[in-house]
Design brief:
The chain is of the alpha/beta class. It is built from nine helices and eight strands.
Length: 215
């Protein structure tokens, strides 16, 4: 993957743009806008995006299991489904909530596959480097019990200073200014999702401000 902006093109089943075709068009728009990579969820979306853009893709499968906290590529079933798509990079939960045996087995079973660790604390990122991950992302900072009081920029800076593995800024880097700062601090790349690809959320930001005016 090249350094720069990666756009996360995802729409879950309860969202208005949930469609592999639409995610493909979103990826095309991202490429035209200057993205150097795409992050995508699910086999159908990934295969559609691969057909329409020539950018590297970070693939995940979001799946909820009973009695499991992890939901980003949480088991080997999702992992093998992604492997079958010939994906460039597979991202998965590498927090303390994840299956450690699964994390330890990745490079043994799939030595030629690139993996990205989605983490929520500095300690988890350092552990991910020791486990052999190719990229470490701040994806889950603030979204786990152990990171609910942490600042994404603080974790980012600590990881950059402590790890040799490329660090990808992801999670609430939702303005051009924040994304630029993440790169200036030494991030390998920055992932932006909803701020670009979820028009219902973008619209709400505008509507909330407009509706503060009495008219």
């Amino acid at each position: 993957m090249k350094r720069g902006l990666i756009v996360s093109c995802q729409a879950l089943e309860n969202e208005p743009l949930h469609s592999s075709f639409i995610m493909g068009r979103m990826a095309v728009a991202a490429q035209i806008g200057g993205a150097v990579g795409i992050r995508a969820n699910g086999v159908e979306d990934i295969l559609e995006i691969k057909k329409v853009v020539d950018l590297p893709i970070i693939g995940i499968i979001k799946k909820d299991y009973e009695n499991m906290v992890s939901y980003i590529t949480p088991t080997e079933k999702e992992l093998e489904a992604l492997i079958a798509t010939n994906i460039d990079v597979i991202a998965l939960d590498a927090t303390i909530n994840a299956d450690l045996n699964l994390l330890k087995s990745l490079k043994v079973k799939y030595p030629n596959q690139k993996f990205m660790a989605d983490i929520s604390t500095t300690e988890e990122g350092v552990r991910a480097e020791k486990l052999g991950f190719d990229y470490i992302g701040t994806t889950l900072v603030g979204y786990t019990e152990q990171s609910k009081d942490l600042n994404n920029f603080d974790v980012l800076k600590e990881l950059i200073s402590k790890c040799k593995t490329p660090i990808i800024a992801e999670g609430n880097f939702d303005t051009p200014e924040k994304s630029k700062l993440a790169m200036e601090l030494g991030s390998y790349a920055v992932v932006v999702g909803g701020a670009i690809t979820r028009p219902q959320l973008i619209t709400k930001k505008f509507a909330d401000e407009v509706n503060k005016v009495k008219f």
